[in-house]
Structures are given as C-alpha cells and as structure tokens.
Amino acid sequence: MDVLALLQCRTPSAHAPSAGGGRRSATTMAESSISFLAEKLGALVSQQASLFGVVEGQVRQLRNELEWIRQFLEYADAERRYDKMFKLWVNQIRDAAFDAEDVIDEFVFKLERKRQQRFNNLKFLNFLPVCVGLPDKLPLVNELNERISGINITLEKILINKGRYGMEDLRAYEAGSSSSIATTASSSEPWKEKRVIPSTVEESNIVGMKNDVEAVKRKLLEGEMERGVVAIVGMGGLGKTTLAKKIYDDGDVQCHFDGGRAWVSVSQEFSIRELLLGIAHCVITTLTDKQKHELGNPELGQEVYKSLEGKRYLVVLDDVWNTDVWRWLSSYLPAESNKRSRVLITTRNEHIAVDARSDCYKLQLLDEDKSWELFLNKVGSAAATWAGLEEFREGIVAKCKGLPLAIVVLGGLLSLKDLTLDSWRKVLKCMDWHLSQGPHSCLGILALSYNNLPSHLKPCFLYCGVFPEDSKIKVSKLIRLWIAEGFVQKRGKETVEEIAEDYLSELIQRSMIQVADTRVDRRVKSCCIHDLLRDLAISEGKEEKLFEVDENIVDGNMLPTSVHRLISNIHHQIISPSHLQNSNIRSLILNRPPIDESSAFLQKYPKLLRVLHVDMMQNRGLKLSRKIGELIHLKYLCLSGFYWIRLPPSIEELVNLQTLDSGGQYISIPHTIWKLRKMRHLTCRDGRISSRQSMRERWAYGHFGFHKMTNLQTLFLQSDDWLKDDNFKLGKVTSLKD
C-alpha cells in the first residue's frame, strides 16, 4: 500500500495558517527526534547511493517513506503528546529509523574493513589504489538489501496500524489550520497549550523584585514622548508575569495612564481576534459585549484605535511567543508623538523584544538571600520559625538555583507537611520528582519553552544535558559536538560553525541557555544551563532516545539496545569493555573517570562510534590501540586529563575526523595525521608531530602535509619540524581562522 495513502487515510489535508492566528512553530516533543533522524538518514543514503547497486530501489523506497513520515509528523497535532497509542506508534517508527541508520553505517563500516584488509594483503603494492571488487562486495550488498527490505516491511506494518487502530481520527494535518487556533478564551479543547499561571505563583508575595519594579516603572513613565514598547525578558519561571502584574496594578502607573489600560494573555496559541477582543473589553465603553463580538476584525481594530486615540494608554501583552503578535496589533494602537503611551511585553524570547524595537529589561535569577526570603514567605509563619528549618536551607537554595517558580512550588508543597525532620527529609529526598509532576509543575512549565523550539534546535538544546551539573560549557566544544552529531543543517555558503553559532544565539535569546563568559569581541566564550532545564533535557533526551546518562542505568551489562549516546557523569564503570565493543553506540562521553583505571575501555571501541570524549583527570599516560583506525565514522575525538597521549599511525584511517582535541596535555601525533582532509579543528596545544614522511611514502603517495588540510579552521600545535616543510604555507589553507 502506498505510504502517502497510509498517512492520509481519511485525514483532512494540510491547510495554510489562518490569517487570524499564529501558525504553530513547534513540533511535538515525540516528533523532533523522528524528524531529525529521517532527514539525517535521507542525507546519509544520498551520500552513499553509489555503493548500493542492486539495493538502490530498496534504499530509495526507505528514504521516500521516511520523508513522508517526517512531513506527517511535522504537522502532527499537539493533542498527540498525551495520546498513548500515538506515542507507541511514534516510538516504533523511531526504532525503525534507528535500525535503518545502523544498517547503513554497518554496511559502510564492513566495506571499509574489506578495503583495509585488501590493502594489508597487498602491502608490496600499497602505492596502487585499493578498491573492493564485486565478488567481495556482493555478500555485503545482498545483506544490505535483505535488511533494508525487512525495515521497509516493518515500516509498512507500522503505517497500516495507524489506520487499523483508528489513529487517523486524530486530525494529523490540522495543526496549521484555523481549526487548531484558539479563537476564544474559553476553548473547550483541553489539549491546547494555553498558558495557565499556577495560583501558587500569582498569589505569592513578591520578594526580591523591588528593584525590578522600579526599573521597569521608570521605562514606562519616563523617556520618549511617542508610543514606546518595553519588554520584560527571561526564562520560564522567573516571574515575568508576576512583575508585570505588580506594575500594572501600581498606583503611580494607574494615575499616569489615565487614558486606559488593557491586559491580554497571549500564549502560544493565539488569534488576532482574541487579542483585539481582550483589549476592547478593557478600553471600549461605548459598545456592548455582543456588539463587539459581532464586529469583524478590521472594524473591531478600528474601534480599539478610536477608543485609545488622543489618550495616554498602557497595553500589556503577556507571554508572547511569536513576532507576529506585535506586527499585527501595532497598527491598531495609536502611535501619537506627544502622549507617552506604552506597550509592555513579557516573553521568554529576546528576539521578540528586538523585533518589536523595545526597551528590553532582562529579569535575573534571585540571589541566595532573596531565594530563602521567598521560600520563608511561601512556607508559612509556623515553618519559618521552626527550629529544624535551618538544616534544609542549603539543599533547597542549591536545588532551586534562584528560580522563583521552583522556590514557590517547593515551598507550597512543604507548607502542607508536618514540621518534623523525617517528613521534610522524605520530600527533599525526592525533590526532583516533586518538581516534575503535573502540567503546572516546574518542569511542566519550562517544557513549554522546549515545545516551542523549532525542530532543528531541539536536539541542540537536549544535548546540553550531557554536561555535568553546574559546569561551564565551552562554546567551541559544544558547537563542534553539535556538528559531529549531525545536528547542524547546511545553509547556503555559511560554514557549519557559523550556522551552529546562530543556533546558540537563538537558544540564548529564547532563555534556554545562559551566557557564562564572553570574549573580548563580545562573542560567547562559555555558557551554562539552569539545573531544572538540565533535568528537562535529560528527561526528554531519554524519552526521545537521544542519549542515556549513566545514573539511569542500573547494570552496565544490561545496556538498552536502543542507546546511541552514552554519557558518564559519575565515578563508576558504566559498562564492560566487551559489551561496549559489541554495541551500536554512536557517542561515548565520559566526563568522569571510571573505577577501572586501566583504560581498557579505550582499547575496544563500538564500531559505529562518531563521538569519543574522555576527561579522565588521571596522572597517567594513554597509548591508544591501533584499532582506533577502524572507527571510520569517527568525527570528534577528545582525550583530556591524561599525563601524556600517544596516537598510532592508524589514525590516518579516520577519514571523517573533524576535531582532534588533547585538552592541553602532551600528545604524540604521527605524521599520517596530515592525510585527514576533513579535519576542521586540530586543537593540541602541547601536541608534537612525532614522525616525518619517508621517501618511500612520498614516492608512493606524493607529498602530504599541513597544506592538504584545506578545511582546517583551528590549529594549535607545538612548533617543530613540520613548520620547516617546503610545502608549509598558511595561505594555502584559506579556511584557517585560529
């Protein structure tokens, strides 16, 4: 059965977004990794198409089906996020996509091993090109054909199940249609992501905001005479709405804006009509509610304009997620030059504030003293004077990290508990669980920001969860890891590093990542992520099968077969070397040394490894096995924390290697490194080229040296004989930047 028919069976076709509302910019959480894998697999299949021969038809069918699935999932309704049947269906597709990726990568790996074996058997003719002939290649092609055919059959069965179990009734293609846009404030559809402010936040006394209130008030009451826009920007849970409400209700503000005030909650799903009606209900007194609802959008907008014309007004647009909100509304709000009217926006996305040409105020996290003051305010007077309270101060403040939402949620929970040490210890022992339960929980509210990310940014954000808690993340390292993982999509003539830097900037603008340090040129040097957002990244990373952290694995010998990225952040042996060797892990990131100090795990490698990052922090040397050369898919290799490192000549076989980083330690590098033409970042500050090309090699292969690395952007090496090479000319490597 045709895949398009399977996907569209009794399903309305896609519609363009309604002019009256905001088009959904975010895909579902379950969809993001599927979409990414489908695109990535399509690109991989295209690159290797010349190798497939008789299997080309099966490969093309697989690629086409995954592309249709990707398109379908891109328009999937938000209601599916809560549908168990759909979740199972998506998980099965994801697993099939993983299987397909494994099959292709294993085929390329086996083909390359055949070539290397042929090369070793013909050493006396090693100056001749070595190819894998059809007799050697045919068994691999037949195996590939059989396995891809099996995956195509599996996918077809999964797609048939969609119709068999009634999932076509979930209106897959209406996500962008007018029917999916919230048109009234009292929408009866519970799955809509309308933002609801928990009463625990709204009713809590404002602590630590006195300076913020005064600063924003000055921006509203003073300054330019013409209409101005002021924006309060910050991550979810900082109290932007609470601050705006405090200012909106302030006596000075009410007296100043005597021409009218309006408060409108926008949220992710909005319609221009709903926003106009919200303002109209606040400022239009000459029409009844029925008359307002009977007006069309242009007429309603004109009535709003006439009601505010010639007056000094304040309009608050709370929780704005889309630049279209201000673009569409601005023409209905008078911009007279002598009234000093103001529009106050709250948003998590700095880009929205910039697009509205606003005077931006960035709300910050609370310091320790203010955090504790807010907690005492919320927990109640009885608990605040309890003798046992001080024992818990450090743990509570450390976990909440100055985020008001977390403090208020935790304080509200503990205010209901008995004032006994055991009762409080039980709650705080499971603090992460309590902060993550329910749609109005801390993580539930922060997840709105994640859901709103475009699909290409989702894996980039989730990947920040692989770094240890409270760590400063070096931007250059983060970007190179994103690129090696395949998260960065090509765009015109820009380099992938430039595109990745744009990704980072957007995540910072959206308050998902925080700037830790900047360079002299004001570019971001290092970044960090709030602990609760890191918890969200780890939770979603596991859900999406993007990566697995070691603390979630009880037995290293029972590693889930679906794990493609394994992260170790604690001191223990996460997995036996033999089990590791036989896995399909693509990324191994060890941020802490294992108990086994023999480094045995660095002598046996998963054959499909793309990323190997090791930070051992041990005063010992490391001599890598020659088997490292078998990792033909390896793109990123970082070995840090060793006393010394020695690389084998087989490093020349890592034809896809883009980054080699020794973390500042001494590293001995064979001259064959110069063969790696895809190398982009050779960062070995105490690295030395340990050998030179022999005359025999030069005769057989021609001269190879630094000038062959035409993609190189970063070079840190100790000056040595390689600088004396006649072919060494910086001008030949035009991509070099550092």
Sheet with most strands: 8 strands, parallel
- On the 0-100 scale, what is the average pLDDT? 75
Distance between the termini: 54 Å
In what order do the strands lie side by side in the largest sheet? 9-10-11-12-14-16-18-20
- β-strand percent reads 5-15%
Kindly provide the radius of gyration, computed on alpha-carbon positions and rounded to a whole number of angstroms: 29 Å
Q: How many DSSP helices? A: 27
How many runs of DSSP E, i.e. beta strands?
20
Which spans have pLDDT < 50 for at least 5 consecutive residues?
1-30, 124-130, 169-205
Q: Identify the overall geometry.
A: globular
Structural class: alpha/beta
The helix content, as a percent range, equals 40-55%
Mind explaining what this structure looks like?
With 738 residues, the chain is α/β, with parallel strands linked by helices. The strands form four sheets. An eight-stranded parallel β-sheet has the order 9-10-11-12-14-16-18-20. It has a five-stranded parallel β-sheet with strand order 2-3-4-1-5. A four-stranded parallel β-sheet has the order 13-15-17-19, with no helix packed on it. Helix 10 packs parallel to helix 12. The longest helix has 38 residues, at 84-121. The protein starts with a helix and ends in a 22-residue tail after the last strand. Mean pLDDT is 75; it is low at 1-30, 124-130 and 169-205.
